[in-house]
Design brief:
Blueprint: H1 5-18, H2 21-32, H3 40-53, H4 79-91, H5 97-104, H6 108-118, E1 122-125, E2 128-130, H7 134-153, E3 181-184, E4 192-194
Parallel strand pairs: 2-4
Antiparallel strand pairs: 1-3
Helix pairs in contact: 1-2, 1-3, 4-6, 5-6
Length: about 200
Amino acid sequence: MPWTTEQKIFIVEAYFRQRSIHAAQLQFKERFGCREFPVHSMIYRWVNKFRAHGTVHSPNRKDTHRQSHSGRPKSSRTPNNVAAVRDSVVHSPRKSVRRRSQELGINRKSVRRILIADFHMYPYRLQIKQKLTPDDMRKRVIMSQWFCDKINAVPDFLDNVWFSNEAHFLLSGLLNSNNNIFWGSTPPEHCLRYTL
């Protein structure tokens, strides 16, 4: 049940007078003539809020007496910050949001919000693909023809073939695809390629 400001103030004052939650609840029922009353945990929360902030309202709540929220920082999406993020992305689109926010001195969430909301950019993960040449196409056709001939010549050939999933082994070591991000409004044309 939503409690009014008057009810919150009354029960907090009653608690400070009586030093008892139960006594404050009884006075609340008598004063407002209702069967329901705030539970212990809610009264403790209002009392602690009053002790910490001097009000029963949430410190982030905007009202007629305050111009802005007291607990929430102001937005970092200023024209200067938007321009700084734009320049940063133009010079290095593969830089992470964390590194970009450290270099620009802007909150990481604000940088991400600027990239998505203002520039309609999204993080695209670069993919590793095999580089194919025209000679590879010819080799594939030869391999397919050999495979068909082998099946015709040996009826149980497929029973002796073992198929497995594809695996990539890189001579340069491990590659963390989570770090290979490209920020852009369209998927990047380029990708990391390697040859076998």
